[in-house]
């Protein structure tokens, strides 16, 4: 999809009723990519750090932050910045953040438990994290349809069950909270892409489905919202797990 502009909707995976952010919170968007969650966090008045190792993505995110400031899309007191670095060795002090989002990043990292430990380290005691990864069933279908999907450089290197993800996070020290699935309407799009070629954006079926997804993002009709809500537990493209760092951990 093309780059988002300041007033366009973004594909948000995290439920901000379960992950409240606002003025006074410092939030890390770990592996921010195009910045979709960082922008929403900024709009809600929190101070946000968009962290990634891709300089091109970070440049686009910084440009968006500037546009949001100039268009009044974020409260005046909120701050937003980009930081380049490695998820396994982040340049932040212990307990630096009130909240951390790690959206669709753990499936890319060979040493995922080391990344989880870093996430835990930079989160304040009592702080909340939201970790999202591709759901097992939709991802398994993608892998079955296309070897290219999971063997290209920087692609997905593992498929998580929710139980496995939660077990690794619990072993890191987190208290496991609620979970949900998201983006069921996007799963068939990726199945189509895997079937016709992940780089084949001009295939009529893939192109038509993509137009439908863009239309849905802009209009959010009631019928598709209901359909996605019903389908999410079955074929939601992503699973989101909410976590808390114990309050006594690292206190003082």
UniProtKB/TrEMBL annotation:
GO biological process, one term: methylation
UniProt keyword Methyltransferase, yes or no: yes
Record-annotated Methyltransferase type domain positions: 28-130
Gene Ontology molecular function terms on file: S-adenosylmethionine-dependent methyltransferase activity
Superkingdom of this protein's organism: Bacteria
Keywords: Methyltransferase, Transferase
Pfam family, one: Methyltransf_11
Gene3D superfamilies tied to this protein: Vaccinia Virus protein VP39
InterPro entries the UniProt entry points to: Erg6_SMT_methyltransf, Methyltransf_11, SAM-dependent_MTases_sf
Protein name: Methyltransferase
UniProt lineage: Bacteria, Bacillati, Actinomycetota, Actinomycetes, Streptosporangiales
């Amino acid at each position: 999809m093309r780059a988002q502009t300041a007033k366009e909707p973004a594909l948000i995976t995290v439920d901000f009723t379960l992950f409240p952010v606002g003025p006074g919170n410092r939030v890390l968007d770990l592996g921010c990519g195009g910045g979709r969650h960082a922008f929403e966090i900024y709009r809600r008045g929190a101070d946000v750090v968009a962290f990634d190792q891709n300089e091109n993505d970070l440049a686009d995110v910084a440009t968006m932050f500037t546009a949001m400031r100039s268009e009044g899309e974020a409260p005046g007191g909120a701050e937003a910045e980009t930081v380049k670095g490695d998820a396994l060795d982040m340049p932040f002090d212990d307990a630096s953040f009130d909240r951390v989002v790690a959206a669709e990043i753990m499936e890319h990292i060979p040493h995922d438990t080391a990344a989880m430990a870093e996430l835990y380290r930079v989160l304040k005691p009592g702080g909340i994290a939201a970790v999202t990864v591709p759901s097992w069933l939709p991802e398994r279908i993608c892998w079955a349809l296309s070897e290219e999907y999971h063997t290209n450089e920087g692609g997905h290197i593992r498929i998580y069950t929710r139980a496995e993800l939660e077990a690794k996070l619990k072993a890191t020290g987190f208290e496991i909270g609620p979970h949900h699935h998201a983006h069921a309407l996007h799963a068939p799009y990726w199945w189509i892409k895997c079937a016709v070629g992940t780089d084949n954006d001009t295939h009529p079926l893939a192109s038509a489905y993509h137009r439908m997804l863009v239309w849905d993002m802009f209009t959010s009709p009631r019928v598709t919202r209901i359909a996605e809500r019903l389908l999410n537990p079955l074929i939601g493209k992503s699973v989101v797990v909410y976590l808390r760092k114990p309050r006594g951990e690292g206190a003082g």
